[in-house]
User: Fold these one by one.
Assistant:
Number 1:
Amino acid sequence: MVSLQLHRLAFLACLMAFLTALPVTAIAGGQDAELGWFPYTVSLRNRGRHNCGGIIIDQSSILTAAHCIVGLSADRVSIVAGAVKLDSGGTTYQVSAIHKHPGYNSSTITNDIAVLKLAKPLSYTPYIRPIALATQDPPAGSGTLGSGWGVSRSSGPVSNTLQWISLQSLDHKICQEKMGVTVSQICTTSANKGGMCRGDSGGPLTDERITLVGVYSWGRGCGDGYPDVYASVAYHREWIRSYMG
């Protein structure tokens, strides 16, 4: 177990160093992911069409943003796991129940988090794996990773290939001043004005320990230099855990 964890940490260190050296291209600053790099990231589908991102947290539970499932019944929602392409690969799983956070506020976009239950459990493979929940928010300035199939500019189409990007956690006081967030939210920024965009909602933000720290919620524009806002996993941890298993 120790050697496996060291291997994962070494991989992430190399991954982040590699990404930092690359030019800005897509997801507003992201790069194409390879199969298995982000095995916890899934595509959330509305009647078969990509709608948002999602995160595997156990064999029967997917975490996503509450705004992604507003107005949707479970029979319309499925997820595709184990794929980096939207149009090929992976395994489809039907959602059987949707649990939206009771405190979700569509006006302030707070408590923007939901747990989806699957009709049958996931079959774990090297390309389909869960991720652990953070117990605390990442320190200001620490390195984080985001992934998703979102657009690379405000008016563009979603990416067919999963994208990933290196981001930095923003000091919460600065986040409050710039974006008006609450203690239930965290922010990231990018030196190259990259970031998450439409279609990335519900996707993961992870720290250097390969722990889930945030669920992408909203931002202003797309790669326009504004911080991205996420629901804090540490803040919502107990509520999330109440629907796991």
Number 2:
Amino acid sequence: APNEGELPQYYIEGHHEPIIAPEEWEKVQSIIQKRSEAFKQLNYQKYSKDQHKNSSFTENLYCGECGNVLGYERSLERRGSNGTKEINRWVCRLAEKYYAVNGCSSQRFHQDYLERHFINLLKGFEQDE
């Protein structure tokens, strides 16, 4: 049975021949670390919470599947030499909680989708008058 910390654990160096040479292991770990840092710095950056531009919709949108409040997420993606692209999405807060027993299976949707349908809704009111 696996020892998950119930008993003392010991590391015996050189007990058996490694599958990967220690030098190769360290080299790979270094590459993984560098790529991770580069991705965090260059490709994906969260906006601060005080830069929220969707206060009109905040806490006014509810999930059609479970009825929970929809939350807003905004990020900036840098895509090589093509510049940056702002990504605005809405998501059910219960769908984000993967550990929830009765989690929601609804998907994220983009801000553009919300704006398009909201404008169509307003146009419908105009035509009804």
Number 3:
Amino acid sequence: MRLRFLVVFAILGAVLVAWLFARDHGLLAIAYQGRLIETSVNVALLVLGLTALLCYGAARLVAHLWSLQRRLHGWAHTQKTGRARQDLVAGAIALAEGHWRQAEEALYRSAEISEAPFLHYLAAARAAQAQRAPERRDHYLDLARETTPKADLAVALTSAELHLEHGEITEAREVLERLRSLHPAHPEVLRAALRFHVERGEWSEVLGLLPALSKRKALAATEVSARQVEAHAGLLRAAEDPESLEKAWAQVPTPLRKRPPVLYAYASQLQRYGAGSRVIPLIHKTLKSDWDSALCACYGTIDGGDTAAQIREAETWLAAHGEDPSLLLTLGRLCYKSGLWGKACYYFEASIARQPYPEAYWLLAETLDHIGDPDRAAESRRKGLDLATRLREAQAPAAGRH
């Protein structure tokens, strides 16, 4: 349609020009620096029109070339950024799949032409860390900081995490201290500091962080409570003498004293210092309202109390927790202490039937020795040793991975 319009327009223009040239419209004279140029008005108008068309065409050509250059530049940029995105995705996949070297190469290759080089360098730092290459890791972190200065906080948090993961405790502590001085109320900085102190077992520092984390809702209330329990239990376990143990216990808020992990730590330490019987009433009260297998097992190891009364109390728990192997093992221990060999054998065998423990096999063997059955005692020791060996072998690969 457009072509037809142009053809019609050209024909009409030609007819108009022919008509104008057929008429006499006079002469046009131009004098310039002593020279005189004469021509007809029609020719002058034709030249003027052609000149205008040439100028218009030249302007369109220049505009088209400029637009073409910009389109070519945009196309090249799109190609580069597209390749960078592909490398970022490929690197992220390789990183998730554990192909560390492949991930590092893909991420670093297109980082400079990426719209988000920061992401490339941070991921490359993690890949280098996985290959135990701290120099390359730190180089990528520096590049991430240089290319994206406003991401300094994110880079520093990643740096602290990787330092801690690599066992570089001093470096991780320095980074976190700097972050806490610059961003004392930032939730992620507080969470990073919490992870650091928990992993280091620095329980006083953990307790110091929890109010700020709770105030800024950086942790759920349930997690704050769990961390409080963990920290107080850790402080109780770390007590090196009865005086420091009582000091740590005095600092435990009253509601937390009935939490099984806290009470277990306290009872274990009291037993260590020869005062375990003091905590028996509190264990009774706690287990009635909040059953815990580990605390029940600890109850069976406490010396110095009224063992017969302990047996009677523990047997009342059978109605609700008769299938718990820890309760059956505890009753076996208490009966063993009281010289009730028949009942001790029964409870040890019942505990083993539900969940074999090397310790239960050993205690059963000791009990069988007392009742004069050396063959069964030897068999029980053999089974306990075999089970302990299998458990150690199963734990060894897991320990190697860490």
